[in-house]
Structure formats: C-alpha cells, structure tokens
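Hi everyone, sorry if this is the wrong subforum. Our group has a chain we'd like a structural model of before ordering constructs, and none of us has done structure prediction before. Sequence below.
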Amino acid sequence: MTRSASWLWYGALLVAGSLLYTISARFPAQLPAFMPWEFHWPEFLATALSLAWFVRGLKRVAQPPALWRQICFVAGVISFYVVLQTKVDYYAQHMFFVHRWAHFVLHHAGAFAIALGMSGPTLYAGMPDFLRPLVDSKAVQKTVSVLQHPAVAPALFVGLLYFWLIPAIHTPVMLNADLYMVMNWSMAINGVMFWSLILDNRARPPARLSHLMRAGLILIIELPQMVLGAILSLSMSDYYPVYTICGRIIAMTALNDQHYGGLIIWLPGTLTSFAAMIAVLVTMRLNEEKAERERAA
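Answer:
Right subforum, don't worry. Here is the predicted structure as tokens:
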C-alpha cells in the first residue's frame, strides 16, 4: 500500500468514526443493538486500527499465524468492541451480572482469544513506521517486562479483579464516565498481557516463562477467583446498591443480580483457567516433540 493510499484509508476511518459519533449522539435509543450506545473514540480507534494493522501485517510477514490463530485474534478484538461499544455496554451499566459478563470478555474470554492469536509480530509489521521505535523503546520494553514478571503478573490479574469490585470503589467508578473507561481499559490490557504470557507457544527461551511456571501461575489465579465468586454468589447482603440507584433494566432483585454475577466470576473464570492449563500442556508436549526431532536431526 502506497503512502498516499494509507493516509486515504486513515481519512476514511476518521469519517466513519465521525458518522458513528454523530448518529449515536443524536439517536441513541433508536439505533439497533449492534450500533454504538455511547460512542468513544479510543475504543473505536483501538479496535479498527488493530484489525487494519493485522490485515496489513499479514501481507508483510514471512510466516503469518495459522488460520485458526488469525480467527481467534479477530474474534477477540471484535468481542472487545461488542462489550465496549454496542448496547451491551448500556446493559452492563445497569445490571451487575451483565457487567460481570462484559469483564469476563475483557479479562478472560476475549483476551484469551487475542493471546491465542499470537499476532504480535503481525501487528508490529502492519503498524506505521513511526510507531515501531516507540514499541521498541527501552521504556516500553521495561514496562512490559515488569508487568509480565512471574511475581507481578498474577498479582495484577487477581488484584485488578478484586480492586474494581471493592464496593467503596465500584460505586463511584460506575457513576463516573472517565473512571469507568479506565476500569475497562485496565481489565482488557491486563487480560491480554497475562494470557499472552501464559499461552506463548514457544519454549523458554525465548518465551519468558517455562511451561511449569505457566501452569503454576494458572493455579495461583484460580483459587482467589473462586473465592470471590463464591462470596458474591452466596452472600445475602447487597454489596452494590449503585445498580439500584441507576435503575435495573431487567426485572430482577438486587441479590439475584449479585448472585448471578458471582457465578460468572466463579464458573466461567474457572473454566478459562482449565482451558489455559490444557493449552499449556499441549504446548509443552509439542515443544518437547520439536526438540526431540531437532536432536535426532
């Protein structure tokens, strides 16, 4: 793609975003469920540019990811857009259990799919030339190294889940648009970083962690999630009256709403950890077979 064609494409992207912004601002209640409920430029640009750079990178890399990995990456990015930019976000602001489903996508399912895509090199190849030095800078690489340290990564993964659900914090966050956006972005970024660390299909080195360490981290994050889910799903106290203040849009008691939300943390979260453990074991076996073939050769 020539430089002029690239800039033309970016211009078309801005025009499309401006149209979505105008339409969602003027006719929010009349739009179908798949249209933005409350348009936000950061989420729109993040998803659109990720997909565009991914497609562009596929044409540039010598060995593109397998087709099933490409599908996982695209599905994960689209799932982020669905929970952040469609009417799902409206329901998440008024129902606790929908909010937990949205964060399950951002922190678990969608992030898990993006990590399975193993598309970092493809995105890097597709992004503009002026951004690559920023990605390669020591500050960015050092930050990523710290956040993916085996002692930091699980603490952040579980810590953010607990932190945003502290009732004294959750209430003001749900009533403040900026804090609400920070919460969603932190969960999405942390989810992608953690699962990318766990689901790396390479052996160590060059992967950051050994397969045994990855399995250990999965076990470390699983128990606190189960405990939090059990507390919320079994408690008889309403910890999140903010949803009553905002008005629930589905006929449901506060406790039922909270119980369903707790079950989402408990059961799907545990299943994601189980799937990650299987992926790690399969990756370990494949790498062992590859090493045996190389020794034999």
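For your construct planning: Residues 1 and 85 are 29 Å apart (CA to CA). Residues 3-296 form one domain.
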